[in-house]
Design goal:
The complex is a heterodimer of chains A (485) and B (289).
Chain A (H helix, E strand, L loop, with lengths): L10 H56 L3 H13 L4 E8 L4 E4 L16 H12 L4 E4 L8 E10 L2 E11 L1 H51 L16 H62 L4 H29 L7 E3 L1 H14 L3 E8 L6 E3 L1 H16 L3 E11 L2 E8 L27 H11 L3 E7 L3 E9 L7
Parallel strand pairs in A: 7-9
Antiparallel strand pairs in A: 1-2, 1-5, 3-4, 4-5, 6-8, 9-10, 10-12, 11-12
Helix pairs in contact in A: 1-2, 1-4, 4-5, 5-6, 6-9, 7-8, 8-9
Chain B lengths: L1 H15 L7 E6 L7 H15 L3 E6 L2 H9 L5 E3 L2 H5 L7 E8 L5 E2 L1 E6 L14 E4 L5 H13 L4 H4 L2 E4 L3 H9 L5 E5 H10 L1 H4 L2 E6 L3 E2 L3 E4 L4 H12 L5 H10 L3 E3 L7 H13 L3 H5 L2
Parallel strand pairs in B: 1-2, 1-3, 7-8, 7-9
Antiparallel strand pairs in B: 3-12, 4-12, 4-13, 5-11, 6-9, 6-10
Chain lengths: 485, 289
């Protein structure tokens, strides 16, 4: 289920939603104000109308009341109603609140005190009987059953005779207001729809270049730069200028990437050349000696002394070539196999290295704090072996070699340090190049193989060294997930 | 409107320009004839044609006003009610001319009506209620209900809570149908007339009592009017049913015609008026208010 999270909405939708919301809000507010004002105004007009009607009745009323001409009083109310359907009720009361005439005579018999139907009517009745000035009574509120009532007190020679009440229904007004409200709201709705559509179109047009920039940047992030099409420029506003700049950046980035690829290609060629030269040199050197030995032996096939002297030389030379080829193969064509072995295999190297020390006075410090149950790639064994051999070889006659292995989070760390002469700064960048060596008999492939294996395992290798302070190699490889193994 | 009026003047002028005689003035009240101007025009034209003189119909609200016009000699003829006709005048100022014939007879009744939805069954049920009279000089609309009260030893003030005059039988029917009044006394002729033309009103009323028959409201002439004119008017009216136009006018009034009738036709009203006055002498003042 997609989450309702407006923060992740596209800018085009946010913009158009905002425009829609603003247009809707403003539209409906204006509409509501218009409707309310219209209602209030026509309500007031209705009140004035009720008062006018009551006044028109009141003109003839005092005389008829004095003559007790009840029929005329009734007819004056009746005639007023004949053309007006909005009249709810009308009545003439005497000074004691008795009915003199009422539009609903059956329920309000003439001559009897007017009896209000409920407490609200009683309240109104009290106001009517108390007033000595024309007033308008209102039911208030926006309801269909509401009314406006004109109240005109009657006087004859300044003597209070009674009162005329004419009550008009707001029902028609209500219907009219409702109709006008519907019209206004419909107009507002149309306005809102048009505004929203226009807003959406405009915001989409505005945001379109931004969307293109975002998509292109996302593609760049994924490393895809080939299918970049320049963003079309329509306007010269901020977004237009952004698009122009972005197009320029993209062109430059593409050029840079091409350049980098060319450089990488030439570097590869250089490395290949160096390897080829190294192989030629390293293999060629013993070959000359070997061929000499073989020539000598061929000339003196029965000379036992020569055979005893040259055969070990030939053997040694061929083994050297074999080692070189073996190491080259390891470095160039790392087997895809990912054999796994116990971490204890690493500790066995301790004894092997002790044997390599030979005559030198070297102290080996061995610290393995990693979990004994941990599994490691078999290739790690060769990495450690090469680093340890290197460390021993670099020490002149005496010194200390430290081996540390420990786990740090998802990585297994190996440190091999010596307190030898250190690596001169000028050769540090060539340290891991194939066939680069400072040792008289070195093949220059040991560290190269370490580097290639570490890379192959997805690890990193770092070197710390200072002249006269020794060197320290740090290898970090990801821990094999034992659960999966 | 103005052009119509001018046309009328031009059309009328040649016919009567030569005549120096004053117009005949005929008094009416809304109590008997509905205020239908078109009908009144047609009727006055008919009379003018037959009389050969200009006839002016004079409408007044009450019988009293018409009687005053007769007394002062302002009108020559009048359609009045039987009750004012039988009242004593010293000296006598009018004489019976002719009487309308309604449904074959120069007689009519008074109806006591109540709202259709009410529970009143008898006149006595109306005690303490609101009652509508037509005209203080009306036989059917006032004298008859007065006699009913007098029989019980009551007056309108003691018997009813409120009373009022509508000065128009049709409006009495309206007052009762709209329940402004709990009861009313009306001319049977008017009620039946309305039952034909405005059944929506009469359907909302119910007759709870009908009076005995009385002489129909008569046409009278003022004493002192030229005998020939009186005779001519009498003939014109009594011959109306012989004339197609006249008959059509009578049809509009729902009358059969006009008939010579003796003064004794109104004895019933005389008896009733005397009874009322004997029982309640104070009624005289009420009637002549």
């Amino acid at each position: 289920m997609p989450k309702f999270n407006p923060k992740s909405w596209p800018l085009a939708i946010k913009l158009s939603a905002t425009i829609t919301a603003v247009v809707t809000g403003v539209g409906f507010m204006i509409g509501a104000v218009m409707v309310v004002q219209d209602w209030t105004r026509s309500h007031e007009v209705l009140g004035e109308k009720a008062q006018l009607l009551a006044e028109s009745v009141a003109i003839t009323t005092p005389k008829a009341m004095l003559r007790k001409d009840y029929w005329s009083l009734y007819l004056s109310l009746k005639n007023m109603t004949s053309r007006r359907h909005e009249i709810l009720t009308a009545m003439i009361l005497d000074n004691e609140g008795r009915v003199q005439a009422h539009l609903q005579p059956a329920d309000n018999p003439m001559g009897l005190p007017f009896s209000p139907a409920n407490s609200i009517e009683l309240d109104l009745f009290k106001q009517v009987m108390a007033t000595r000035k024309p007033i308008v009574l209102s039911s208030g509120g926006f309801t269909k059953t509401g009314f406006q009532e004109g109240v005109i007190p009657l006087f004859s020679d300044q003597k209070y005779l009674g009162v005329v009440r004419v009550r008009l229904s707001v029902a028609q007004l209500y219907e009219e207001s409702k109709t006008s409200a519907i019209i206004v709201l419909t107009l507002v709705l149309c306005f809102v729809i048009i505004g929203s559509v226009l807003g959406t179109i405009i915001s989409r047009r505005m945001v379109k270049p931004l969307t293109a920039v975002t998509r292109a940047l996302e593609a760049v992030g994924r490393g895809e730069m080939t299918d970049f099409a320049p963003i079309p420029i329509k306007d010269r506003d901020e977004i237009g200028r952004l698009s122009v700049t972005f197009n320029q950046i993209m062109v430059e980035l593409a050029e840079k990437k091409m350049l980098e690829e060319e450089i990488a290609m030439s570097e590869k060629l250089v490395a290949l050349g160096r390897i080829t030269a190294g192989v030629a040199h390293e293999v060629n050197n013993p070959l000359a000696g070997l061929l000499n030995c073989i020539d000598t032996l061929r000339e003196h096939p029965d000379n036992k002394v020569l055979i005893d002297r040259y055969l070990p030389v030939i053997d040694q030379g061929l083994h050297r070539i074999k080692d070189i080829v073996h190491n080259l193969l390891v470095g160039l064509k790392i087997e895809e196999g990912d054999e796994i072995e116990s971490i204890e295999q690493i500790d066995k190297l301790h004894d092997l290295i002790n044997a390599e020390i030979g005559e030198k006075n070297i102290n080996i410090i061995w610290e393995n704090s990693a979990d004994k149950n941990l599994q490691i790639p078999a290739k790690l064994e060769q990495i450690v072996c090469n680093l340890l051999k290197n460390a021993i070889e670099i020490l002149p006659d005496s010194g200390t070699v430290t081996f540390k292995m420990y786990r740090q989070g998802a990585y297994l760390n190996i440190e091999v340090s010596d307190d030898g002469p250190g690596i001169p700064a000028n050769i540090r960048s060539q340290l891991f190049d194939p066939f680069f060596t400072t040792k008289p008999n070195g093949t220059g492939l040991g560290l190269w193989v370490v580097y290639r294996l570490t890379q192959n395992l997805g690890g990193v290798i770092e070197v710390e060294s200072e002249k006269g302070q020794g060197s320290s190699f740090h290898v970090s490889i990801p821990v094999i997930n034992t659960k999966a193994a | 409107m103005r052009s119509v009026f001018l046309l009328l003047v031009f059309w009328v002028m040649p016919a009567y320009a030569a005549s120096t005689e004053p117009p005949i003035r005929f008094g009416l009240t809304a109590v008997v004839v509905t205020e239908n101007l078109r009908f009144l025009d047609q009727w006055s034209q008919y009379l003018e044609q037959k009389m050969g003189r200009k006839v002016e119909l004079v409408m007044r609200k009450s019988y009293r006003e018409v009687m005053d016009l007769l007394d002062s000699g302002s009108i020559d003829f009048a359609w009045i009610c039987g009750f004012p006709y039988i009242q004593n005048r010293e000296p006598e100022s009018l004489q019976l001319l002719t009487v309308p014939v309604y449904r074959g007879s120069p007689r009519y009744q008074s109806y006591i009506i109540v709202p259709q939805s009410s529970s009143y069954r008898r006149f006595g049920d109306l005690k303490g209620k609101i009652f509508a009279f037509s005209d203080p000089d009306s036989n059917s609309g006032f004298l008859y209900p007065l006699s009913l009260m007098a029989e019980k030893g009551e007056t309108p003030e003691t018997f009813f809570r409120q009373t009022f005059f509508t000065f128009n039988h049709a409006e009495t029917v309206q007052a009762v149908s709209e329940q402004f009044a709990d009861g009313g006394a009306v001319d049977s002729y008017i009620w039946e007339y309305l039952a034909i033309f405005r059944p929506d009103i009469t359907e909302k009323t119910r007759i709870i009592k009908k009076s005995p028959s009385f002489g129909f409201p008569p046409i009278v002439s003022r004493l002192g009017v030229n005998d020939d004119t009186v005779k001519l008017m009498k003939n014109v009216l009594e011959d109306m049913n012989q004339d197609p136009t006249g008959n059509a006018l009578l049809g509009q009034l729902k009358l059969d015609g006009f008939r010579h009738s003796p003064d004794s036709l109104f004895n019933g009203i005389r008896v009733m008026a005397n009874t009322v006055l004997n029982l309640r002498p104070d009624f005289v003042g009420l009637a002549s208010e």
